[in-house]
C-alpha cells in the first residue's frame, strides 16, 4: 500500500502524489515555480507516480470484480494533474528545452512514452490548468481526457504551442495528438504555425478545454474533482483504457514511429540509459 503523500523523486521532490479519497488521485507538479518537464521529473516523478496510481486502482478494481454488488464502491477512479498548488501563474511552462535537445532520444524514450501512458491510462485523467500552459505542458494537458482551466480573471493565463517562435521543430508525437484531438484545419494552423496564445475563453470556444473556472488554483482543482467524481464510475468496467487505445490507435502508431535515420551514437545513448 502506497504511503501518501508520495513525493518523487525521493530526495529531490518535483511532484507530489496524493490520494484524498478512494476514487481520486492528484499529481501536483512543482519543479520550481513553472514546473518545467525535465528528464528527472518525467522519468523519476511522473512515470513512477502513474505506476502507483494504476497499481492501487487495479487492486480496487479486482475487489469490485469479485462481487460487484457487495463492493460497488470499489474500482472507481480518476486522476488529476495540477500545477504547483501554492500559485496561480503556471500549470507548466513546457519542457526543459536546452537539456532535452542534448538528448537525441528524449522524445523516443522519455516524453513520448509519457504521452502514450496518459493517452491510454485506465481511469479518467483531468488536467487542472491553473495558469500558463505552454508547449510540452500544453501537450501533457492534451494527452489527458479532460481539461479544466482558470478563467484568467485575476491573473492572465494562456495556452500556447509556441515552438514556432523559438525554432523548435515538432516531434511526430505532437502532430499526431493534435491531428487526433482537433479536426479543424484553421485552428490547427493557428495552434501549430502561428503559435497563438489562446485565452481561456478562446480555448473553451474551440474545444481545447472543457471548462473554465473563475477563481484560484483551489477553485480549478475543486471543479476538476467534481469532474473526476462524475466519471470515476466509468472506470469500473475496466475498459476505459482499452477503448482509448482503439480511439487513439492512429496517434499511438505515430508515436511508435522513429522517423530519424539510424544513428549508432543515438542507439548507444539509448543503450547507456537502459543499461
Describe, in plain words, how this protein is organized in 3D.
- The structure is a single chain.
- With about 280 residues, the protein is an alpha/beta fold.
- Helix content is about 45%, strand content about 15%.
- It has twelve helices and ten strands.
- The chain has helices spanning about 40-65, 95-100, 105-120, 135-145, 165, 170-180, 185-190, 200-205, 215-230, 240-245, 250-255, 265-275, and strands spanning about 5-10, 15-20, 25-30, 80, 90, 125-130, 130-135, 145-150, 160, 210-215.
- The strands form two sheets. It has a seven-stranded mixed β-sheet with strand order 1-2-3-4-6-8-10, sandwiched between helices. A three-stranded parallel β-sheet has the order 5-7-9.
- A hairpin with a 6-residue loop joins strand 1 and strand 2.
- Helix 1 packs parallel to helix 3 (about 105-120) and helix 6 runs antiparallel to helix 11.
- It is globular and about 55 Å long.
- The mean pLDDT is about 95.
